[in-house]
Design brief:
Number of strands: 9
Shape: elongated
Number of domains: 3
Distance between the termini: 99 Å
Low-confidence stretches: none
Helix content: 25-40%
Number of helices: 14
CATH topology of the largest domain: Nucleotidyltransferase, domain 5
Mean pLDDT: 84
CATH architecture of the largest domain: 2-Layer Sandwich
Strand content: 5-15%
Structural class: alpha/beta
Order of helices and strands: HHHEEHHHEEHHHEEEHEHEHHH
Strand order of the largest sheet: 7-6-5-8-9
Length: 397
């Protein structure tokens, strides 16, 4: 047997000295948890070490430090032959589940759209390749079901991903990435996916810094907002007051040249819902309200609110942003958007409506009695607030 490695190792791995301690404690009859306590390691680490690196002696497993270190050194050698390279049956199984043809009930294949792989992420609103398109995790788990007694037919989902994305381990063809649900040609690191905050959204104006009075809805003047999107990048802005559920709609007409596909470099977005257009429409609507009803606005982190600082200066409204992918933090607005879809269904062109038509829809919504308002309408609830505000101003000496 070759000489075992005596080089100092990372704390992540067991050293030869630790393996000698494990062998000694095991020979004296100590259990897994007692060995873990004596060596300062996790019980799962000790259990795995005894299971993987034990030597077979006279038909039974016996743990010896030198044999265990030799097994560990063998597994640590790099580069390794990828499992999908060495096992043709396993590779064929994985490829069939990733890129196998979609078939009719009688078994004949369906070609689907003709798509050329372009070595980049699949674009939205374009045809995708039709395939079985199992996820790597589904393939890895199904192998245990289809081959319960064949341990050679095992692979982890991470090994499949590496065969698709890592150069040098390409047992699978790179174009099979088009069969994954995301269609990414390059893998996105997890940390990069987490860094989703916008540069214009500092921590000081996140929803966690919003005043506590907003939560119980006792104090009026706190609003939630969003855009509802339609065909051809058309949009309507929505503002909902949290206490009364009063709704205001923002008219965001598309600019000249949008229908012709014209675009000016560094110019305003012609779709009509750029940061400047949304700021102007919001300021025009909010400034019609008394100052007492202009306390705060909660929005998601869409780019249409990039000019929130100027909006705060123009209207006096404090702007707060929700956490990424957390629509429930604007639950009132999301519920109202669902009601508005009765008038503005998804997939329809919202640019065909003028400001008067939007005001009419808002009036219809504000005229519906709400259970949460004890069957008052939002318009009636807002009128009561306005009367109380005016009375308070009139009685001020």
């Amino acid at each position: 047997m070759p000489t075992v490695s005596q080089l100092p190792m990372s704390r992540r791995f067991l050293s030869f000295g630790e393996r000698e301690d494990i062998a000694m404690h095991r020979a004296s009859g100590c259990g897994v948890r007692e060995i873990a306590r004596l060596t300062g390691r996790s019980p799962s680490t000790i259990s795995r070490e005894l299971r993987r690196n034990a030597a077979t002696r006279q038909g039974r497993l016996a743990y010896r430090a030198s044999s265990a270190q030799w097994h560990a050194d063998c597994r640590a050698r790099r580069p390794k032959v990828a499992k999908l390279v060495a096992n043709d049956a396993l590779r064929d199984y994985v490829q069939a589940r990733l890129s196998g043809a979609v078939r009719r009930p009688d078994g004949t294949p369906v070609a689907g759209p003709a798509v050329t792989w372009r070595k980049k992420k699949v674009r939205r609103y374009q045809d995708r390749r039709w395939a079985q398109a199992w996820s790597p995790e589904q393939i890895a788990r199904r192998l245990e079901v289809d081959f319960p007694h064949d341990v050679s037919m095992r692979i982890s989902h991470e090994a499949i991903y590496q065969s698709l994305y890592v150069q040098g381990r390409g047992a699978l063809q790179r174009e099979l990435t088009a069969c994954l649900r995301t269609g990414r040609a390059l893998r996105v690191p997890r940390e990069r996916r987490r860094r989703t905050s916008r540069a214009y959204v500092p921590a000081e104006i996140m929803i966690s810094e919003r005043p506590a009075e907003v939560e119980d809805r006792a104090v009026p003047g706190h609003w939630e907002g969003d855009l509802i999107m339609g065909l051809n990048s058309s949009a309507i802005g929505t503002l909902v007051e949290r206490t009364t559920r009063f709704t205001m709609l923002l008219h965001l007409p598309q600019m000249d040249g949008h229908s012709e596909g014209l675009h000016t470099l560094h110019g305003p977005p012609l779709a009509g819902h750029g940061a400047e257009a949304v700021r102007d429409a919001m300021a025009e609507s909010i400034t019609t309200l008394p100052v007492q009803l202009r306390r705060s606005l909660t929005w998601d982190q869409g780019v249409e609110m990039a000019q929130h600082a100027k909006l705060r200066v123009d209207t006096g409204v404090e702007v707060y942003f929700c956490d990424p992918r957390s629509p429930w933090q604007r639950g009132t607005n999301e519920n109202t958007n669902g009601l508005l879809r009765q008038y503005f269904p998804k997939g329809t062109n919202l640019a065909r409506y003028d400001a008067e038509e939007l005001n009419a829809v808002a009036a219809a919504l504000n005229g519906r009695p709400r259970k949460t308002l004890n069957w008052k309408t939002p318009a009636e609830a807002l009128d009561e607030l306005l009367v109380s505000v005016q009375a308070g101003v009139a009685s001020t000496p």
